[in-house]
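2024-03-11 09:14:02 DEBUG pipeline.ingest accepted 1 chain
2024-03-11 09:14:02 DEBUG pipeline.ingest length=248
2024-03-11 09:14:03 DEBUG pipeline.predict start
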Amino acid sequence: MSAPVTDQLEPMPDDWHRALAVVAHPDDLEYGCAAAIAGWTDGGREVSYLLATRGEAGIDTIAPAECAPLREREQRASAAVVGVSSVEFLDHQDGVIEYGVPLRRDIAAAIRRHRPELVITLNHRDTWGGVAWNTPDHRAVGRATLDAAGDAGNRWIFPELISEQGLQPWNGVRWVAIAGSTTPTHAVDATAGLERSVRSLLEHRSYIEVLTDEDPEEYCRTFLIGSAEAVGARFGGRPAVAFELFGR
């Protein structure tokens, strides 16, 4: 008798209505999450985006003052492709985001405003599977998001959010899902949203054109379809998006 397969990914929970995705930069969600988000919005779920920066330090040939509004426009267009209309920016400084109380407070405030059951963020660990060093911004925002999911429900943490902004505690976050984790536990079928995820990433053309000499569409398609197929090998052979899921 063959040994049981133990590395298969579980389906993500689907008994939720609102999600908030919190990342550091424009395009962070499009490198892998967008196909799942397209499927969720197709099903009537509400997904909102919160970005800590406008990615203003991301393009060497464009000064930050010019780059920030360009990348904001591209992010809003990118989100619209997968059915997301709510996109907020926190105005932390790209490249030097600091983990700490101010960042936790900003994210906790957004969680109280949006009242999600599912919170999504990006890999918060030091490396990408021990192969490549993760950026300080990704680490800071990912870690702060995990902490803020708890902060949002405690009225005695950041009580000024109640007195100054009228944001009552929200203790309804049931899960935090980490995209880009090298130790995923769950996955979402990406079949219906895969083509839109390619178009969504392609909206970040200004950034992509400085990343690669490849044709931008070919670059996006190769990266996203290859990633989805790799995850699908652990999810019944269907193209998929993987997450590491923490319950609360």
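2024-03-11 09:14:41 DEBUG pipeline.report The chain is about 40% helix and 15% strand.
2024-03-11 09:14:41 DEBUG pipeline.predict end
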